[in-house]
Design goal:
Length: 289
């Protein structure tokens, strides 16, 4: 009895609910991981973070982005990464955990969300991560020419990608900020008839010579709404390694590139600032487990 005196069983963490600029934010504890949390905005899942293991990626699309990070440079080599859209800073934490001494910038419009995440899911104080509360395109415009090895775009407002982040003019700014040989990775969301996704492929092809698309086969076939990761670069992409890694994920995906990707785009029109529209509204079923 004396040995147990003063000991208290740790209480299970509780859901944190707070109104932020972009809607109602919820930080929901992961019952399977003691310090794991899922961020939801207005009911839509945004990010998953494990503070004990920031190299753990729970969402399928984030695993695919993780593979892109892994293949950006030799293992462990520090890189410069620009994150457009912050969420719970999942990918920035991943880069810091797998490539220490990397220099990163996060641009997140929702200042209240940034404060919520900083308070409840603090970043490693040793990580070289700067967080700026600004519009993604405005923040991109402040990045020096040729600064980034990798630009990751994962921006959603009301579960939709804003129109001004879908155009050829936006992607020209991305390419300006990239080093020669650098890469761009964008989390996109679409469903049948995949008009938005096809348009984004055509738009990226007007700016970058090398493209690939990674997604669940059911999404690529237009059978359901879901995420797809679009990759672009001015150099050849590591298609074989990427395909093998994504196919071996817990939720296996498929990689399209080359002539198959051109055929998938199906002659879609390049999106410009004048014609840009937000990505489609997800169906209610998209976020049901």
């Amino acid at each position: 009895m004396a040995k147990n005196k003063g000991r208290r069983e740790r209480a299970a963490p509780e859901t944190v609910v707070e109104q932020v600029d972009g809607g109602l934010a919820e930080l929901i504890p992961d019952r399977d991981r003691p310090r794991g949390w899922t961020l939801r905005l207005d009911g839509a899942p945004q990010s998953h973070v494990d503070l004990d293991d920031p190299a753990y990626l729970d969402f399928a699309y984030q695993r695919r982005l993780g593979h892109v990070v892994d293949l950006t440079a030799p293992p462990g080599q520090p890189v410069h990464v620009l994150h457009l859209g912050g969420g719970a800073f999942t990918m920035a934490r991943y880069v810091a955990a797998t490539r220490s001494r990397s220099t990163q910038q996060i641009v997140e419009l929702d200042a209240a969300l940034v404060q919520l995440v900083r308070k409840h899911l603090p970043l490693d104080t040793n990580a070289r991560i700067r967080v700026r509360s600004a519009d993604a395109r405005a923040g991109l415009g402040k990045i020096a020419d040729g600064w980034a090895d990798l630009v990751i775009a994962d921006v959603f407002g009301g579960a939709r990608t804003p129109a001004h982040l879908t155009s050829a003019e936006f992607l020209a700014e991305v390419r300006r900020a990239l080093k020669p040989g650098g890469g761009y990775a964008a989390n996109l969301a679409d469903g049948p008839p995949l008009a938005h996704l096809r348009g984004q492929i055509a738009t990226a092809a007007a700016v970058f010579p090398e493209l690939a698309l990674a997604a669940d086969p059911a999404v690529l076939r237009g059978r359901r709404f879901g995420n797809a990761v679009l990759l672009a670069s001015d150099r050849a992409l590591p298609i074989a390694d990427l395909t093998r890694r994504i196919a071996s994920d817990p939720h296996p995906g498929r990689v399209e590139h080359g002539r198959e990707l051109v055929a998938f785009a199906g002659g879609a029109t390049v999106v410009t600032d004048a014609s840009a529209r937000p990505s489609p509204v997800p169906p209610e079923s998209a976020f049901k487990k």
